[in-house]
Design a protein that fits this description.
mainly alpha, 2 strands, elongated
Length: 194
């Protein structure tokens, strides 16, 4: 039992380290404002949630955001948003997969987590993230970054619905896809069966 507990801690730590590195390897999309960046740091968190359990996935989300705090350019708002949304993604996916440990279960779990994260992004961005950002820079600047891409965007709600929601859905889909493609191949190694 002690050996199993130690393995879970080690696996969580290794996946958190991988997630922290992947968080720094991000890129912007040409059709979205430059502050929205794609990264694959949720992939290790989702792996942790599937292989060790949802609490391990949450730990990975927390650690990767704590590691990125010293280099934050968002006044910690971006890290808070990432933590909340990533946590919802891996928690809901992990809870579903815990009861349905099949390939179909992993796919369904990933889709559930992805949609929970994307729909939650509407509310967290509108009520928490953008109001917090407006303390650092005027909200008009943020709206202006979006209206350079789509001229008729003139409100925070339009920014959230037109950019944040689909962006979060895409980010979740990419991380879920990588997890879905690799999980069954590497889960025996993670669980110590090889």
């Amino acid at each position: 039992m002690k050996r199993n507990y130690t393995r879970k801690i080690v696996v969580t730590g290794l996946l958190a380290a991988l997630s922290s590195v992947l968080m720094y390897l991000n890129f912007a999309l040409p059709f979205a404002p430059s502050y929205l960046k794609i990264d694959f740091s949720d992939f290790p968190a989702l792996l942790a949630s599937f292989s060790v359990g949802p609490l391990s996935g949450l730990a990975v989300c927390l650690i990767k955001n704590l590691v990125s705090l010293p280099a934050s350019s968002t006044g910690f708002v971006g890290e808070l948003s990432n933590f909340i949304l990533s946590s919802l993604f891996v928690l809901f996916a992990g809870l579903y997969y815990k009861k349905h440990r099949t390939k179909k279960g992993a796919l369904t779990a990933s889709l559930i987590g992805m949609f929970v994260m994307a729909f939650s992004a509407i509310f967290t961005n509108y009520f928490l993230v953008y109001p917090a950002y407006s303390r650092i820079m005027p909200i008009e600047v943020i709206i202006g970054m979006s209206s350079k891409i789509i001229p008729w965007i003139d409100s925070t709600l339009k920014v959230v619905l037109i950019f944040n929601f689909p962006f979060t859905l895409l980010k979740g889909a990419l991380n879920a896809l990588v997890t879905f493609l690799l999980y069954k191949r590497i889960s025996p190694i993670i669980q110590g069966k090889r």
